[in-house]
Amino acid sequence: MAYISLKRAKDHLRIEECIHDQDDYIEFLIEAAESAIASEICEDLRDLEVGDGVLPADLEFTILLRLGDFYSHPETVTYGNPTEVKTLASMRGLFRNYSR
Predict the structure, then answer these.
(1) Model pTM above 0.85
(2) pLDDT band for position 86 (50/70/90)?
(3) How many structural domains are present in the chain?
(4) Could you give phi then psi for residue 12, rounded to 5 degrees?
(5) Does residue 78 sit within a domain?
(6) Is residue 29 assigned to a domain?
(7) Is there a contact between 53 and 86 (Cβ–Cβ < 8 Å)?
(8) Which residues of 20-36 are buried (b: 16+ CB within 10 A; e: fewer)?
(9) Each residue of 20-65: pLDDT tens digit?
(10) DSSP letters for 42-90
(11) Which domain holds residue 52?
(12) Mapping DSSP to helix (H, G, I), strand (E, B) and coil, where does residue 99 land?
């Protein structure tokens, strides 16, 4: 289930809503980002819903941060000194299930 809408993802990525040539790719990245965050926090996102299909805002923001990372860095090779965004690490830590 996609918790992040295409519109919200495009807003976060600063892509105009009228541009549609990457919609399929962005929807793929939404699914990948949601799956990655669920894996990183060791929780099924459905268990964290605060309403019917709604996640807490800070968890949605965490997914958007991961989405932005996937969109901006589609390759596995990086030049320079890559570092993880501290905001992502701290936000992800809020939901991490350390018992698993």
Answers:
(1) no
(2) low
(3) 1
(4) -65, -40
(5) no
(6) yes
(7) no
(8) eeeeeebeebbeebbeb
(9) 999 999 999 999 999 999 999 999 999 999 999 999 999 999 999 9
(10) TS-GGGG-SBTTB--HHHHHHHHHHHHHHHH--SS---S-----HHHHH
(11) 6-73+83-95
(12) coil
At residue 95, the pLDDT reads 82
Sign of torsion over alpha carbons 27, 29, 31, 37: negative
Residue 31 domain-assigned? yes
Which residue has 């996102």 as its token pair? 45
> How far apart, in whole angstroms, are the C-alpha atoms of residue 5 and residue 26?
10
Radius of gyration (Cα) for the chain, nearest Å? 14
Is residue 12 domain-resident?
A: yes
Residue 87, pLDDT > 80, answer: no
